[in-house]
Every structure is written in structure tokens, then in C-alpha cells.
Amino acid sequence: MAVASPPPTRDDESIPRKGADMTDNAPAVHVSQLVKRYGDMVALDYFDLDVSQGEIFGLLGPNGSGKTTAINCILSLLTYDAGTIRVFGQPMTPTSYALKRRIGIVPQNVAVFNELTVTENIDYFCSLYVPKKADRAPLVEEAIDFTGLQDFRRFRPGKLSGGLLRRLNIACGIAHRPDLIFFDEPTVAVDPQSRNAILEGIRKLNQAGATVIYTSHYMEEVEQICDRILIMDHGRHLALGTADELKAMIDTGERITIETFDLTDDALSTVRALPFVIDATYDGHELTVRCRRGDHNLVDLIGVLRGAGANLGHLTSRPPSLNDVFLELTGKALRD
Questions:
Q1: Are 36 and 74 in contact (CB under 8 A)?
Q2: Which residues form the ABC transporter domain (predicted)?
């Protein structure tokens, strides 16, 4: 949860609060023309990113796209070859301790101490930002209440379920009341009830004024909570917008699936030749057709199939999803 090594503290140094010594209308994060190389490999290729204060911002990309490298550069955990990074209007450097105290991180891998209780873990991570125990105590209690861990405060992590561990992970990352919070896959391997609780908690943090940068492989989560979404690949910015704006950028207008057990090769070829069909696949019992935007795609497709003598069963038609956007822009699934 700490942003780099614990910074040195001074008794006379107050804990930065929202808006302290910052430009009110500055982006929470501004990244311009960021380049990061590992030898001959370019991890970030003149990457741009702007996150407004007060939004939940989704950052999506397949594995190896540069997401983690970009975040580590923003946090000044990595050096980079070119570009500029500003957080709340100020340059971000390894010694930007005031800025780092305004940031919280909830990593994908649960990062807590098994030897400490729930309360002790939260207090420890909070102490990295808030040196005085008297100042920390109410913050620790607030984090426990916020994440619903009141009945588990004396438990050690080994006694917690996966969902409760995730909540502890979040509590450790937010106890110091950060203004900017990075959530990296916070709902991996948790049950639906815990997932809903985590997403609702993120919304509440945002409503209380925190800016959130959110990464996930669960497209429905991103679409559910993010105000804007950036898709990146090969270290580059590919597309940015709301979920609806991103869907409007691609050719796919709808995806139709039809149950049929007797589709011939000739009939499949006829379907693929239809002017509104982008691609069509058939696995022996279900036909899946990705279509361009049109008013009569389903009717026209059914007409062709019936004309070919195919017996049709259950069918569905759905609008494009974020996964369709991802596939069309990157040529791969999110987890590739």
C-alpha cells in the first residue's frame, strides 16, 4: 500500500489535505509523451494520460500493454526516458513526499502482514503517512467501519476469507484518506457479494472526493463504475471516452447468436457474404454473427437461414460490449 519507501517525517510537517498548495483545476494526473524502455523493448511509447479530479477513471489493456509500467512511473517507482508527469498540478519525483501522502494504492496481490491483526495491519500502513498515533487512531477506526471489518478487527489475515482479505487490503490503502487512489484488480477471486461491496465502497470513496484510477479484467465492472475509460496497448494510448463513446468508435453494431444444429457450409458462406456481417462463426450447434450497425440485421439474417433450410432455436441479439471494443482495437482479448 505504501508509495515507494516510507518517506522521512518531521513533527512540524502537517498531513497534506485536499487542495493544499495545489492548483484547484489541475488534473489529478497528467502524463505527456511518456517513454520508458527496457533495453531494446519500448514499454511506453509516447504515452499520454489525463485524469480529472473527482472521476473514476478506467485504465484497460491486455497483459504486457504497459499499464503497470505507466502506474509505476506515475508513482515515481520507476525512472523513465522522456516525458512529463504531474500530480495535482505538481511534478512527481521520488522525493515528492507531500504528493505521495495524498496517494493510496490497493494492489492486485494482497499485501498485508500475516503476523499482525486486522487493526494492526491498518495502523501500520496508515503510519507510513500519519506518524502520530493519536492522529491515526480515528483514521484506523474509520477504515475498519468503511470496509465492514468491525467484527474481525482482532483476526489475523490467515483467518479471513478471500473477500475479507480484499477488504483489509483496501482498508490498508485508504486509511490515511488519500485524494488519489489506484485500484489494481481489487475484485479478483472474490464472491459476488464481496465484489458488490467493494464496488460500492469505491463509489463512496469517489463521492467523498477521492479520484480513482481503476484497472480490471472484468469489463462489466469497468462499465459499471468508471466515468471515462482509456484503452492502451503496446505502451500507446489507443482510445479514450465513456463506455458509450468507445462503443460508437467501432464497426460492431450488434452480436447475434442463433442455436441451430444443421447449418451447412454453403449456408454459412452465404451468411458471411451478407453486407452487414463483419464475421460469422459456427461450432456445430450455435451460430455467432458480428454485425455492423443496421436496423434489420436480425430479420435479414433469419430470412437467409430459413431460406437455406436451417432449423432455428434460441436466439439473442445484444449491442456491442467493451470487450467488443477491446477486441476490435487491440485484436486480442483482455487477458491475452
A1: no
A2: 29-259
Give the number of residues written for the chain.
Answer: 336
Q: Which of 102-106, 156-160, 161-165 has the lowest mean pLDDT?
A: 161-165
pLDDT of residue 255: 94
251-319 fold: Alpha-Beta Plaits (3.30.70)
**pLDDT at site 6:** 43
Instruction: Check whether 18 has a pLDDT greater than 50.
Output: no
Measured in degrees and rounded to the nearest 5, phi and psi for residue 313 equal -115, -135
Q: Measured between alpha carbons, how far apart are the two ends of the chain, in Å?
A: 27
Residue with cell 488534473: 27
29-246 is classed CATH 3.40.50.300: yes
Instruction: Determine contact, residues 51/27, Cβ cutoff 8 Å.
Output: yes
Give pTM, 2 decimals.
0.83
What local confidence, expressed as pLDDT, does residue 297 receive?
95
Instruction: Map grid coordinates 479471513 to a residue.
Output: 160
Q: Which helix (H) or strand (E) covers residue 253, if one does?
A: strand 252-259
Angle CA(80)–CA(81)–CA(85) in degrees, nearest 5? 55
Domain ranges for the chain, please list them.
29-246, 251-319
